[in-house]
Amino acid sequence: MTMPVRITIELLVTQLSGLRRQDVDRWIANGWVRPDGPIGEYRFREIDVARVRLIQELRDDMEVSESTLPIVLSLLDQIYALRRRMARQGW
Amino acid sequence: MDDPYATLGVSRDAAAADIRDAYRKLAKKHHPDLNPGDADAVSRFQALTAANEILSDPEKRGRFDRGEIDAAGQERPPRPSYRDYADGASGRRYAKPGPGVEDWDQDEFDDMLASLFNRDRPPEAAGPRRGRDEHYTLSVPFLHAVNGAVERLTLPDGRTLDVRVPAGTTDGQTLRLRGQAGAGRNGGPAGDAMIEIHVAPHDFFRRDGQDIRLVLPVTLAEAVLGGPVEIPTPHGKVRMQVPPHSDNGTELRLRKRGVAAQGERPAGDLYATLRVVLGAPDAALTEFLRDWVPEHPANPRDAMEGPV
After folding, report:
1. DSSP, res B95
2. How far apart are the first and last CA of chain A?
3. ipTM of the complex in this document
């Protein structure tokens, strides 16, 4: 069994081009991204990294403003919650 | 690999701004994380990204136009999309909005789904499944609701249910008959019949919580002289003393003659509001009043005097 990969915020910022650390810090403060660990010792799981990239693409490629992002994320989270639930019900 | 210009739907001499706009427009539509139910969205979005990689970079675009590179050479290895995680168990990390909350409480989530689809909570996929609840309405005569009764409810399928309406049932109250609705599956219990009670109005009683109110007509003699009168209550007639000189509108209270006590709730009272009824014209009364000089003349409309 492999340990889940958890990366630091420094590594995250170097992995995703065009991403600034203060963006990630703000997204964490907004509750949009929820890495493990206390402030200053964040550890990002794979899903956190993918979510940061999604937020980055929403903002930069799709021009979703940060004031609109919470609505988009909330709807996405609800859709995925439904999908997981439906999958469990055998849909 | 398709022509990146065709993929983005732009002409070969399109300006950089047009290419960026075309890519953004298509990315919004085809982003796989926004289309989790669409299996083809991943490949469509990858083609868009690859085309944009070439055309958004003037150097790469020039090399492609000169035939130095082809579109396929720019393809990136497929990367895991957010939806690959969000669709799995790890997605529960972001199931509930708000920082610091990792997960929906399962009950909360079932309730959310139930309200979303306007149905009862979903059962577990396997195992016993409880039958569906059914909702009915039942109209009950006023006194049956106050005193309690057994009412027969005919269901749409022709079955009948004998519903015990407890004393003191109020209008709009819902009674639950356990196990009287949809059959369970896999050994699960049957659902409940939920019966909303509509209490029909009464000719002269009115419900006020645990109290009962009525307007009690009295003769002029009964109002002036007082005396015993018979008064209806939900539990039968009782005798009550009207005090002498009870004016029209006087409210008399009969303790514990309202809705009977049930469990913790004490019995209510009966409030009778007197209404003086003159009745048919009476020659003697008319004659008397014509010559009558009141002992204490007073204008009953005094309170209405003054500037209006």
Report:
1. S
2. 30
3. 0.81
What is the DSSP-derived secondary structure letter of residue B38? -
Architecture of domain B4-85: Orthogonal Bundle (1.10)
Nearest CB to A61: which of B24, B93, B104? Answer: B24
Contact status, residue B5 vs residue B22, Cβ threshold 8 Å: no
Q: In chain A, which residues have their Cβ closer than 8 Å to the Cβ of B92? A: 81, 84
Contact B86 A47 (CB under 8 A): yes
Q: Are B193 and B177 in contact (CB under 8 A)?
A: yes
Q: Determine what percent of chain B is predicted with pLDDT higher than 70.
A: 86
CATH architecture of structural domain B134-199? Sandwich (2.60)
Q: What is the DSSP string of A47-70?
A: HHHHHHHHHHHHHHTS---TTTHH
Q: Which CATH superfamily is domain B206-291 in?
A: Urease metallochaperone UreE, N-terminal domain (2.60.260.20)
Taking the mean position of all CA atoms in its chain, how far away is CA A54? Answer: 7
Express each pLDDT in B245-257 by its tens digit: 999 999 999 999 9
